[in-house]
Structure formats: C-alpha cells, structure tokens
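Help! Submission page says 'invalid entity' but I think these are all valid:
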Amino acid sequence: MTLDLELIAMALPLLATGALVTIKLAAVGVGVGLPLGLGLALLRLAPNRLLAGLGDGYAGLFRGTPMLVQLFILYYGLAEVPVIRQTPALWWFFRDALFCAGLAVVLNTTAYTSEIFRTALRAIPQGQIEAALAVGMRPWTLLTRIRLPLAFRNALPVYASEAITVVKETSLASTITVLEITGQAKRLMSQTFGILEIFALASLFYLVINLACLGAFAVLERRQARGMRP
Amino acid sequence: MKHTLCTFLTAGLISVAGMALADNGILRIGTEGDAPNFSMADAAGNVTGFDADVANALCAKLEMTCQFVVQSFSTLVPSMDTDRFDVIISGLGITDERREKIDYTIPYASTPQYFVVAKDSPLASAKDLDTILAGLKGKTVGVVNGTTYARFVAKMAPEATLNTYEATTQQLADLAAGRVDAALSDSPTWADFFKTPESAGYTKIDLRILPTADHETLGYGMGVGLKKGNAALQAKLDSAMCALITDGTIAASSMKWFGEDYTLPCAK
C-alpha cells in the first residue's frame, strides 16, 4: 500500500486537538490522583482498623473492576438517576462527558497509586523509623522528613509506570463521546477507512506524550538519587 | 417481463449453486447486533431482525449456511478487509466513499430518517430541511459513529457540535438524559424509542430525510457489502436479491419488523 499523504495532512490537526484533551485528562489524573493516592495509602496504613478497612475496600473496588465499566456507570448509569438529573450542581458535573472521564481516571489512579505508596511506605527499614523516634521526632515530622521522602524515592519508578498507564487509560473516554486522541481517530476511521495510517499516527501521539512523561520521571529519579551514590 | 428476467436469473443461480461460493458452503455475515429491528444479537449469539431475515433468505436462495459475526458498526468495513467475514448485512448504506473500499449488491431497501428534539425546542415544528439545518447551529447533535447520517450532519450542519456514539442504545440514553439537543436516526429506531417512558419529552420532526437529500453522504439505499473484486459472489448475490425483492420476500420482512415497506425495486 502507499502512504496517503492527503489523509495524514487531514488527520494531523484533528489528532493534535485530541492530544490536548488526552494531556488534560492525564494531567488531572496525575495532579489529583497522586496526592489522593498518597493520602489513601496513609489511610490504609492507619492504626484505626475501620479507616484502614474503608481504604482497602475502596482500593479493592476500583482495582477489581474494569475502568470501562466504571465509566459507563458514571456517564450512562448515573444519568438515569432522577436525583442526579434534578440537582443542578450534580447534573452540571455529570452531564459533561469530559468531567465524567476525568472523575473515572482520578478514581482509578487513586486506587493504584495508594497501592504503590502503601508498599513503598511499608518497605522502609524499621531501623530508620526507630532511629528517628530515638532522636525524639514527633509523628508528623517523622512522616514529612523520613517516611514520605524515603517512600517517594522507592515508589518513583513504579509510579512513572502508573502515570503512563493513566495516559493510556484516557483512551477509554472515547466511548463516552470525548474526542481525545482515540475518539478523533475512531471518527476519522469511519470517515476515511484509512485505519492503518490513522491509528499509527494516533499511536505516535501517545508514544510522544508517554516518552516525554517517562523522561520527566527519569530526571526526577536522578535528582532523588542524588547523594545516594558515591 | 420482470418475472421472466427473474426466472432466468434464478435458473442461472441454481446452475452455479453446485460450485462452492465460499469455503464449505458457509456464508459469513458481519452485522452490528445492536440495532433494534435490524440486527439484534442475543447472549447466545443468535441474530434476529430484518438484516437476519435478508441474510437467511439470501443463504436459502444460494443454498448456503449463514454464519453471523457480531461487531460494532464502525468496525464492520475494516474487519471485512481482514477476512473476518464474507459480507456485511447490517443496514449498510451505499455511499461513494465506501464504494472505494468495498463492493455492493444492488440496493434492496432504504430507511427514512428523522431528527428528534425536545418537545419545547423551536425546531419541533420545523417543516423543511433548511430550517432544521439552520436551527442546529451551535446545538449538540447525537449520531452513531460510522453511519451515513453522522456524515450527513457533519456535512450539512457544520456549525453543530457532533456527539458520536458507539451504539444506538448509548445515543438514545444521552438523548433521554438531555445531553444532546437533537439526534438523527432512522424510523425503526425512533419507533422503539417512542415506546419507552424516557421519550415523553421528545418529538420527531415530521420530515422524512431520504437519500435524495444528499447522495454524497446518505448514499443510495442499503446493499449487502462485500470485499472488492469478488465479481462471482456479487453476481450471485445480485440475482438472488433481485428474486427476493420481486417475489415480495424482502417486503414481507420489512412489514413484519417495521410496519412499513422499505423495499427498493430491483434496479437490474
């Protein structure tokens, strides 16, 4: 087959518009999901068993069900609930496909991020904690000065992986009318049938976003490691 | 005269029926399975509806066994390219653009399309297409991705925001939820929608949108889609289809499922 240049010229600007939406969704996912996930990890490690159990339940629920199903419940399902349609503030939010997609991404990545940080926090050697307690650190200082920095450094490589998963998960938003990269590509596919060119281009967009994302995390990782190696 | 021609075509058909059309006398049929009254797939994979009737009648005429493959509408044409099935029978409209990718049998039916809007919409009482298209400026219109009418709206109402859905059920859910200002779909879809309580606040704009409104996007009616360059299969399907149109088989199925005769006369 020959490469259809005209088709590519037509697809590029539309896919670029879609890429902006993808980046927006992923940025919300990482920007909101990271602090929430961190909070959830601490909750799940809380000595209070009720709080820890609630946190575990949340993480289990969102890690144990497909995001596509969650998305359909949030977008198509909740729209059938009268209370949501009749409450202006709720309907303002759930009427918008982009908001629903953003919410689904945040709910999901929060669950996965909490798992990453829960493991990282538990992996901190007990000796480090004991040393901190021995010099008289209060729990808050212990958390911000010792536990979080150490956990962050341990979790960073795994979290980088989660961040690019978020970028890829945003493609599910195309099923609820959001025109991000995949949504634009599907629409172009049904208009032109140039399936190979269009989805190869779409992949390229994802690849560029994700490589940039991984690059940023690699820089962060190197900074974190400063002073660790001779 | 017409009768003689069909007898001739049918005789020709029977004489070649001994030769295998596709492998093992099985005709694999790609269909959406999610379009009420056209193509409805149940959990067991059985397909019923107008498309299924047309397919089964064709298979009977060709003395082949029908095997249905159910996929979302927008993936049907690409999947036939990769040999997932031999033909598409899924209310597939004939368009110039699709003709570049696939071949068609003669058109056998055409479904009238209608816009649906909220009862209190200023468009509810519109009488002609120009008024509707002008009124859609700045409005959100729901369509199913990959359909001819999705392209019709994109071309004729470029200043409307298009919400595209993977399936009719999702488009209707969003119409009922009030997320779109108008939706375009065909007569049987609306007939079903207006049986549901969700449709209470909505009304069909009383204007039949036929392929004549814009052949470029709405095409020429629906035909059976098949892979390019399979002239032998195409000729056989054409003669079988012509016979089924002329003897009233298609019309009977159309009346059964839609209460309306959608049949187009055999153009051969």
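Support: the input was valid. A stray whitespace character was the problem, and the output above is from the cleaned input. Chain A has one domain: 5-223.
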